[in-house]
């Protein structure tokens, strides 16, 4: 007999939400401090951030093993763990990234959790929410327009060589047709014709900056430091030379404020920023994390994709700039992902197969090793699916025991907080055993090459790193612009430790190929691009959008 489960959207739509003022009141926020977007969403003022409370709060990071194309449930686990901790009497806030419309309408669907571990209102969060992505898009594209205008203008012309401009326009949609375009067509009135393209909004440097700033003044300073290109005489040109940072910041005056919503069980949730982890830093904003830590003694947050991407960047970039250190790191694993990395076909993952499962454990073991690199003891959370067998779950738990790693089966999708109290208990034990702060895998003062090689060898398990000619040219520019002492944000496929998405499991003796290195002087890091990574995704053969609809009463269907 097959059990019938409600869809994520059906569960969200059947839940009676509390008014956002009541959620705010539960964490001692006055209604006067709320900027409400209807009954169930609100923005929070930065004045609520309290460094003394942050120092007393405990930060918990949720990451994962290398995912299947569908993802392994980090957000669902983060929300479920938050519910579980609250069930145990530990007042906890979950702090997450905002979903991008690209994946929502593409392959993965929404990013508000799933089942009975969701943040709500689910439809609003997954669609336009409070307009933060739109504001980031507009600020990014304002700069693009000002650059083109300055190149065209005969007055106040900075002498920018259009061949050196790498700033692209962005839009929050997967659209492969915009990756490479020619702009300025149509004669003199159309501007200077040049080759350019679009990135997805989540990959914009504006998004990266917003997630690393502390206030408006810091935002303006960082945006002023954005590198545009060079003059014909070879001098670097920055946004502050254009004088554009003030107008760009004005467009972000509301987007800089984090958003308060709620979990299905009425616990506080803060959602802010949404950089991808395979092409950006993959974590919510420093402002949002510090806001959560100012409000409750415990905060659960997540970092995108596997621990080789999101967690690495969370620890080596975000924590470095924010001065934060997690007390526990949860690694989400699923039986289906383990079987996938053990060689089982994507189409057969619902079928029991202990042989492929055991083989795939190598991938999880490497992620466990990586977390230990930072001096933090991991906790493995097995995100349980209905098709998992008891034998398969037992194999995973026994391997974790052999490795001396805490492990719990999480059933937050099916049971909410009642299904994650075991995980919450194990996380609390790990917190009690944590006596120090994390250790980064590289020193920012090392050379760019040494930092890349440290991540490639220690975190990915690469044997060698190859720098292609363009990357070597970029290294000279990085030194000239003055970014050699900043962290690195490697763009790499989320499907493998290597830069080849087809190398599953735990690849050995591979070479990481660095194709080029982009400059993100405003955000304060460099972006080594490996393999065939693209910063504008395309849609799958059958996009998720095809199954979505809305009726005459405004009720949405098909969103997951």
What percentage of amino acids are in beta strands? 15-25%
Shape type: globular
Q: State the share of residues found in helices, binned by percent.
A: 25-40%
Q: Outline the low-pLDDT stretches.
A: none
Task: Give a verbal description of the structure.
The protein is of the alpha/beta class. The protein has three domains: 8-130 and 255-334 and 384-393 and 407-433, P-loop containing nucleotide triphosphate hydrolases (Rossmann fold, 3-Layer(aba) Sandwich); 132-249, Domain 2, N(10)-formyltetrahydrofolate synthetase (2-Layer Sandwich), CATH 3.30.1510.10; 448-530, Formyltetrahydrofolate synthetase, domain 3 (Roll), CATH 3.10.410.10. 36% of the residues lie in helices and 17% in strands. The chain contains 20 helices and 23 strands. Strands 1, 2, 3, 4, 5, 6, 13, 14, 15, 16, 17 and 18 form a twelve-stranded mixed β-sheet that branches. The protein has a three-stranded mixed β-sheet with strand order 19-20-21. Strand 11 and strand 12 (236-238) form a beta hairpin. Helix 7 runs antiparallel to helix 11 and helix 15 packs parallel to helix 16. The longest helix has 21 residues, at 132-152. The protein starts with 7 loop residues before the first helix and ends with a strand. The mean pLDDT is 94.
